[in-house]
Design a protein that fits this description.
This protein is an all-alpha fold. It has 31 helices and five strands. Strands 3-5-4 form a three-stranded antiparallel β-sheet. A two-stranded antiparallel sheet has the order 1-2.
Length: about 675
């Protein structure tokens, strides 16, 4: 069995056990990619030289031979010396890659898409779903702009779009128009010039009983094509619009879609009954946004954006109680301690503070004497305080912890389970004022699980399990963490909460890594697979820089070289990674300067890991002052695993880093 090759994303290779193969530098990967583009044909050395360099060096031919020799050693490590290569072969004036079709993900993808058209819809949908999952980014990602890769990359990109549309057709044939429409909305938005995407989206909507939405899609497509391209819709779109208007029998409909049908009926009744300017629409919108935020895909960022608009609209009406209800209705459980959109969060906090101040003004006690419920008034304040605490997470502001304490105190006094769950979420988010607080967070998670299970609050029950998963990871108790991961997954399936799988998927990679159940290459592959779960999850505060940080921690623990591409995006973690990367590259003076510029870690789930990165750099550079700062910060977490409290990655026992600091 030969190694496998991946070009549906960054160019990579893996051995027969699925472990990544180190391909050294970008020139080595470009040689491999160029040979894959040739599909088994011989590429002359002179062509490789022209493709690899705009201005070739004097010994370019010798360099190419060196790259090929290194690739052969990596791809066939067990080949005896002086025996001919079987995979990357010399043939006449150049080289060829003699790989089977199954060995290259792009070639397998082509076969799968071609075969899908001959399969029954159910099997086609499953096969296409699998094939689309092989994509890790643009084809030949780092070489996509090279002339030799451009044509094949574009062809594969077009084939991928075709596969998305084939899968949608298969889903519609199975009566899953709702699912097809959800996929096609994102597809048509990303590729607005594909008339077939608009056609399929309109057809999927029509088949789920949403004729008005289907016609609206076709009208938007017509307007976009005319405005941006100056063309009229093609015959396919025009014919579909005419068929929808006359409800042609051949279009078909999903036989029974009670959820979609009820949604349409209620939405229509609401639009007819509730006046456009009614304040009730704002409250209904706020409740809808809460559901939208947990649906996955584009739901979360859309909910955040529309939430700010709803709050702004409520404030413009000058009704503090209405504004409090609109702000407080968004009681969406939050597990990650870094904000996805700090600007939006700041706007919500400012509005909540203004509303809280207005509710505390003298006029509201007077209105309460006229029959308003004091408990409702206090509940509104608690929701505003919890919102302030949640949206202030990760900062060093004293207001966040203060608001969390006040919200929890009010909620306990009122005896409202939902309000208490929301307040406990706020308390969790403000439970990072120092390192080593995993036991306290474990207690919050336990109360959330018990409270939510008693009162039927599935979203907060899932949150409680994830909080306990993180806390037990930090304490090295993976057996208990496994149980909470399984419980969270089971609830997520039952209540259709796809975002939960992002966190439990990353936990599975951490479990493989920190549990010592796999060698470093396998753990690295697991982290890369987990990173794929973040695509389209709508959580930039989680995704930015997370994979490089996880791989950095893995390589440090295994004493591996810190080899990262120059264009690696470290996101917010760059200041803590930079000193170690510079040291690994032999740039000691620059590393000293970078260490002195490293800030204190934010108060979040990764603060212990970031302190340990600072500690390692300080020990390596002999900086006693920073070593002492790191030791003082890490001492309370001496019994924890650094970073494992995130449930995503680990830098090993904090005690090991403390020993290094002491030594």
């Amino acid at each position: 069995m030969s190694p496998g090759f991946g070009v549906l994303g960054p160019v990579t290779a893996w051995d027969t056990d699925g472990n990544p193969i180190s391909l050294k530098g970008p020139r080595h990967r470009s040689v491999l990619a160029r040979l894959i583009v040739a599909r088994g044909r011989v590429v002359p050395v002179s062509r490789l030289v022209d493709d690899l360099w705009t201005d070739p060096p004097a010994d370019a031919v010798g360099a190419v031979r060196t790259f090929v020799a290194a690739l052969r050693r990596a791809l066939e490590p067990g080949r005896p010396p002086r025996t001919p290569a079987r995979l990357l072969v010399t043939d006449g004036p150049g080289y060829a890659l003699r790989a089977s079709t199954d060995a290259v993900d792009a070639w397998r993808f082509e076969q799968m898409v071609a075969a899908a058209g001959t399969l029954p819809p159910e099997e086609a949908a499953v096969r296409l779903e699998e094939a689309l999952g092989w994509w890790r980014g643009p084809a030949y990602a780092e070489f996509a702009d090279q002339p030799w890769a451009r044509t094949d990359g574009r062809r594969l990109a077009e084939l991928r779009l075709h596969a998305v549309e084939l899968r949608a057709e298969a889903l519609m044939s199975l009566g899953q128009g709702d699912r097809a429409a959800a996929d096609l909305r994102a597809h048509s938005a990303e590729h607005p010039w594909r008339e077939n995407a608009w056609r399929l989206l309109a057809l999927a909507l029509y088949r789920t009983g949403r004729q008005a939405d289907a016609l609206d899609v076709l009208r938007r497509a017509r307007g976009l094509l005319a405005e941006q391209l100056g063309v009229d819709p093609g015959p396919g779109l025009r014919a579909l619009e005419a068929d929808i208007l006359r409800q042609a029998d051949h279009l078909g409909r999903t036989p029974d879609n009670p959820a979609g049908r009820v949604w349409e009926q209620v939405a229509d009744a609401y639009d007819r009954t509730v006046p456009p300017g009614a304040r009730a629409r704002l409250e209904s919108t706020a409740a809808l946004l809460r559901s939208l935020a947990v649906t996955g895909g584009s739901g979360l960022p859309a909910a955040r954006a529309h939430r700010v608009a709803a709050v702004t609209a409520a404030e413009e009406l000058g009704d503090a109680e209405l504004t409090a209800r609109v702000i407080g209705a968004y009681d969406v459980p939050a597990i990650w301690t870094r904000l996805d959109d700090p600007d939006q969060a700041a706007q919500v906090v400012a509005a909540a503070e203004r509303t809280l101040a207005a509710l505390s003004s003298p006029k509201f006690p007077a209105s309460l004497e006229q029959g308003a419920a004091p408990m409702g008034h206090e509940a509104a304040k608690a929701r505003l305080l919890a919102t302030i605490a949640l949206e202030s997470r990760g900062t060093r502001l004293a207001r966040g912890p203060q608001a969390a304490r006040q919200a929890e105190e009010i909620a306990r006094g009122l005896g409202d389970p939902m309000l208490l769950a929301f307040a406990l979420n706020a308390s969790f988010m403000q439970c990072f004022d120092r390192a080593g607080l995993a036991p306290r967070r474990d207690g919050i998670g336990a109360e959330l699980v018990a409270l939510s299970a008693r009162h039927g609050l599935p979203n907060f029950e899932i949150l409680g399990h994830l909080v306990r998963l993180q806390a037990r990871c930090a304490l090295g108790d993976f057996t208990t963490a496994d149980r909470h991961a399984a419980a969270a997954d089971a609830l997520a399936v039952r209540h259709e909460r796809p975002l939960v799988g992002v966190f439990t998927g990353w936990y599975a990679a951490l479990r493989l890594d920190a549990g010592g159940r796999a060698p470093a290459p396998a753990a690295e592959a697991a982290y890369r697979d987990a990173a794929g779960l973040l695509h389209g999850a709508g959580m930039p505060g989680l995704v930015e820089g997370l994979l490089p940080l996880a791989l950095l921690c893995l390589r440090l623990r295994h004493a591996l070289p810190l080899t990262f591409d120059e264009d690696t995006d470290w996101g917010p973690y760059a200041p803590w990674a930079r000193p170690l990367l510079l040291l690994d590259g032999g740039h000691r003076p620059e590393a000293v300067e970078a260490l002195h510029a490293t800030p204190e870690p934010p108060r979040d789930l990764l603060q212990e890991a970031l302190w340990c990165l600072t500690a390692r750099a300080a020990v390596a550079l002999g900086d006693r002052r920073i070593m002492e700062r790191a030791r003082t910060a890490l001492l309370p977490a001496a019994n924890e695993l650094a970073g494992a409290g995130s449930g995503l990655l680990s830098l090993g026992p904090v005690s090991t880093h403390l020993s290094d600091l002491a030594g």
